[in-house]
Amino acid sequence: MLVNAIDKQVLPRKIVTRKSIENAIALVMATGGSTNAVLHYLAIAHTAGVKWTLDDFERVRRRCRCCATSSLRASTLAVDFHKAGGVRRF
What we know:
The chain is an all-alpha fold. It is built from six helices and no strands. It starts with a helix and ends in a 7-residue tail after the last helix.
């Protein structure tokens, strides 16, 4: 897919949209992801020319339930989320 995208000049700016950022942040929220995601996604949105604010993070957070976490003391871990059909945590 990556080689095909490069051949067709499909640049990140063409596929990073408000909806794609929202989906990525929803995944971060659902998996108890890093607070660094806020800084990274603000930078990604800015670079892609997508208007994204801290209020948008809060809007996504309110509708997402945390399904897994990377904390070893949690009752549900990211690996359990993956086994249940969710995405793999790297």
